[in-house]
Amino acid sequence: MSKTSLREGQMIISLPESCLLTTDTVIRSYLGTYIAKCQPPPSPLLALCTFLVSEKHAGDQSLWKPYLDILPKAYTCPVCLEPKVVNLFPEPLKAKAEEQRARVQGFFSSSRDFFSSLQPLFSEAVENIFSYSALLWAWCTVNTRAVYMKHGQRKCFSPEPDTYALAPYLDLLNHSPDVQVKASFNEKTRCYEVRTASGCRKHEQVFICYGPHDNQRLLLEYGFVSIQNPHACVYVSAELLVKYLPSTDKQMNKKISILKDHDFIENLTFGWDGPSWRLLTALKLLCLEAEEFTCWKKILLGDIISDTNEKRSLVIAQKICHYFIEETNAMLQKVSHMKDEEVALINQLTLVETLWTEELKILQASDEILNSLQMPFR
Ligand SMILES: C[S@@+](CC[C@H](N)C(=O)[O-])C[C@H]1O[C@@H](n2cnc3c(N)ncnc32)[C@H](O)[C@@H]1O
Question: What is the per-residue DSSP string for 230-248?
Fold first, then answer.
C-alpha cells in the first residue's frame, strides 16, 4: 500500500545494490571457490538456485534468513502442479507446461555432479540438501521473482545469459496489466529503481507490470491468472482452422505453405476485441476461391478482395468461436466435477477454472463482435 499518492514518474522503490542477490553475491560467498573449480562451469541460474537452497538449509545461520522466511513455501507454476491438473490446460499451454517440467527435471539431473562437488561444505549428504523438491523451489523462486539485470559473461559460468537479480521487498509487488512502470538498475545511484508511469492513489495497493502477458503466459511463468486481463486471448491452432474449411479445396496445401512462409500460422487468436487481425487474415487467405487465388499477397497486406471472401472468413471465424465456446464449457464442467472429487487439489483446480472462465468471457465477447461484423452482409 502506498502511504501517499504517487504521481507519474515518482519512485515506488529504490533498492541499493548491496540488497540484491545476484551471481556476484554467490561468487563472493563460500560457494565461490567451488564454482571456480567446477568443470564444466555451472550456469548463472544454477549458481543462484544452489545459493538459495544452501542458505535455506543454513536456517538461522543465514544472513538472508529474513528474506528467505517471507518467500513462498510452495509455488503454483505448472511444473509444481499435478499432471492430471496440467492435463486440463488448453492445448498450447499444456505443451509448454510439459516442456517446462522436462526442462526443470533436466536442470536437476545435469546439476548432480556440481552438487556432489559441494559435499565438503556440508555435514549432511548433499543428495538430501539438494533434492529435486529443493531445487524446484529455488527454480520457481528465481523464475517468479527475479528482476532483469544484465551481468557481463564470466569465465566461471557457462555462457547462458546472466540476467537475474533477486530483489527483496521489491519482489513483493504484484502484477497488474493496467499499470505502467519503469524499472531498471541505475548505474549512477547503484540502486535498482522502480518508478510509476501511471500514478497510484493514497492507501491503494501499488502494482507493477510484469509485461504485456496473456493469461497462459502468466500461468506458465508466474503461476496465476489475471481477471479481465486486456492481453488475454484464446489461441487457434492451424489444424483447427483447416478443420472448418472445405476438404475439397485443391489449393489448401499451397495456402497453408504460404501462411507458414509468411509467419501467419502461429499466434492466431481471439481476444476481447474479437478475432485478431492475424486470425482474420489467415482465414481470408484460406477462404480464397480458385479464381481469386492470385490475390493472396493483397490479403497479407490487408486488402479486401471480395464481399464473398470477407463474409466466408467471418462465418468460419464464428464457427471456430462456437466450437471453442462448446469446448470451454465442457472443460469447465469437467473441472467443476473434479473439484468435487479431488478436494486436495481444489486450489490447483480453481486456478485452471479461472483460466477457462476468462477464456469463455473472451470467446463470448468475440462471438458478439463477429455478429456485428457480419451485419453488412446479411
Ligand atoms: C514477484 S512475486 C509478488 C509478491 C507475491 N504476491 C508474494 O507475496 O510473495 C510474484 C508472484 O506473486 C503472485 N502474484 C503477482 N501478481 C498477482 C496477481 N495480480 N494476482 C495473483 N497473484 C499474483 C504470483 O504468485 C507471482 O508468482
Answer: TT--EEE-HHHHHHTS-TT
Instruction: For residue 3, count CB atoms less than 10 angstroms from its CB and return exposed for 0-12, middle for 13-18, buried for 19 or more.
Output: exposed
| d(C-alpha 265, C-alpha 268), whole Å | 7
Provide the residue range defining the domain that includes 9. Answer: 1-19+167-226
Distance 225 CA to ligand 1 centre (A): 10
Residues 263 and 318 reside in one and the same domain: yes
Query: Do 177 and 194 have their domain in common?
Result: yes
Place of cell 543428495: 127
Residue stretches of the chain with pLDDT short of 70: none
| 222, 229, 348: residue to mutate for ligand 1 pocket, most atoms within 8 A of CB | 222
**CATH number of 346's domain:** 3.90.1420
User: Structurally, how many domains does the chain consist of?
Assistant: 3
Name the nearest CA neighbour of 321 among 247, 373, 285. 373
- Whole-number pLDDT of residue 346: 97
Cα 153 to middle of ligand 1, angstroms: 30
What pLDDT score does 242 carry? 87
- Which residues, other chains included, contact 89 with Cβ-Cβ below 8 Å and sequence gap of 6+? 78, 97, 219, 352, 355
Rounded to whole angstroms, the Cα distance separating 169 from 15 reads: 8
Protein residue with least CA distance to atom 19, ligand 1: 175
Ligand 1 binding pocket (C-beta < 6 A) is 72, 144-145, 171-175, 222-224, 226
